[in-house]
Design a protein that fits this description.
single chain, 410 residues, mainly beta, Immunoglobulin-like, Jelly Rolls, eight-stranded antiparallel β-sheet, 4 helices
């Protein structure tokens, strides 16, 4: 059964399918036994048409689903000073997000090399996140309300090194700021506070063009018009923030005497992501339009149930097996899937033979992975129109794929 859908985690995969072969072809190495990650388990509950395929270039993703882990990299955070979790905006995973009290709560990610390289001033990047800012109003007497920062400006007023986004009461607006070794080498671009809703979920994205030294901000899918408070940044590496911690929710200032109050985010943060390129306006708007379905937290792969048949007829009472192919595409190598990690159907049937079979089932010159599952272990029942599988690659990345079926028999 042919299906074409655009799915990706680290890139966009466009695939097509046909034919499968018998079990006597060369076999893939037997994978060690293991259970699916929580991501694969969670994602199997969601239709592939609900979530948004992830654009390429994703470096780190902290969803806040009851933990501070980076689910695509190794840049894990830690909750500090009582930071906790609450109901998030995106419903995938366990539906939670970070909850910060505005006093001293942060998620501290440390200074991994990947983030030093990304936030060094000479690299394009995009930050994308859903948030709620829980304050009655913002103004001249507000504290700095920091969404994220790499480094800080220290005590008044050495401006030793920072790259950050916050509500800045000094400029009376939201601002992206870079300082490196002093006030004279930096930039501040600000946006009107009236463009940022309070006490409700907001989708925010900041795309930084390193060549132009220019950040663009999007709120709820719309690009905002900003202005430079000043711009004297020379465009070189921000040496003074290398090896300094990246913090979600604070802290822009370390000295409350610089500006009264606490300098931390007060409210909720969900699905905090950073990319190593400038996302397009269409890509940013697509995430906003996806709403609570969010981005897919798995690699969406093309599968073909009973390839060569159209429709894919399955008798739920059959005592036979159902062949399913995972297709290799330009962006995904099906042979990297661990066969014993794969579960198929509502009841999560395991591979019947205990191993996978390698075969070029669609004749495109690439090896595909063929798996077989006992029909009566799948949980497919009369009236079902779709069946899905979930598993992991050898590197632990969760995958999911679905195909249409037609049930027959009584």
């Amino acid at each position: 059964m042919k299906k074409s859908q655009n799915y990706l985690l680290l890139g966009s995969f466009l695939v097509g399918v046909i034919l499968i072969s018998a079990c006597n072809r060369p076999e893939s190495p037997t994978a060690p036994e293991g259970k699916l990650s929580y991501l694969a388990k969670a994602s199997i509950q969601a239709s592939t048409t609900d979530c948004l395929p992830v654009p390429s270039g994703l470096v780190s993703w902290w969803p806040g689903d009851g933990h501070a882990n980076d689910i695509v990299g190794e840049n894990h955070g830690t909750l500090q000073n009582g930071a906790t979790f609450s109901t998030g905006f995106v419903t995938s995973g366990n539906g939670q997000g970070f909850s910060l009290d505005g006093v001293d709560d942060i998620i501290d990610v440390g200074s991994p090399q990947a983030l030093d390289d990304l936030f060094n001033g000479i690299h394009d990047f995009t930050v994308s996140v859903w948030y709620v800012l829980e304050v009655e109003e913002v103004g001249r007497t507000s504290p700095y309300l920091t969404l994220f920062t790499k480094g800080n400006i220290g005590s008044c007023c050495d401006y030793s090194g920072t790259l950050s986004f916050a509500y800045d009461p000094y400029v009376r607006g939201y601002s992206f700021e870079i300082y490196d070794g002093g006030y004279g080498n930096g930039l501040v671009k600000k946006w009107s506070a009236s463009d940022f809703p309070l006490n409700e979920w907001v989708h925010f994205a900041l795309a930084y063009n390193a060549f132009l030294h220019d950040p663009e901000v999007y709120v709820n899918g719309q690009k905002l018009t900003g202005s430079y408070f000043y711009n004297q940044y020379d465009g070189t590496v921000i040496e003074n923030i290398l090896d300094q911690d990246f913090k979600i929710g604070g802290e822009f200032l370390t000295d409350s005497n610089v500006w009264p109050g606490n300098h931390y985010w007060k409210g909720l943060i969900d699905e905090f992501q950073v990319f190593d390129r400038i996302l397009t306006e269409a890509e940013i708007r697509a995430e906003y339009n996806a709403g609570s379905a969010g981005k897919c937290k798995f690699i969406s792969v093309e599968i073909d149930i009973k390839p060569g048949s159209d429709p894919n007829s399955i008798n739920p009472r059959s005592k036979g097996v159902i062949p399913v192919a995972i297709l290799t595409t330009e962006g995904f190598d099906a042979t990297t899937v661990e066969p014993l990690s794969v579960e198929f159907g509502p009841d999560g049937a395991s591979e019947f033979h205990g191993r996978g079979h390698i075969n070029d089932v669609d004749g495109d010159g690439d090896d595909d992975l063929v798996l077989h599952f006992r029909t009566q272990e799948t949980g497919i029942v009369a009236g079902d129109t779709e069946a899905c599988l979930a598993g992991e690659t050898t590197s632990g990345d969760p995958i999911k794929g679905c195909d249409t079926i037609r049930t027959v028999g009584r």
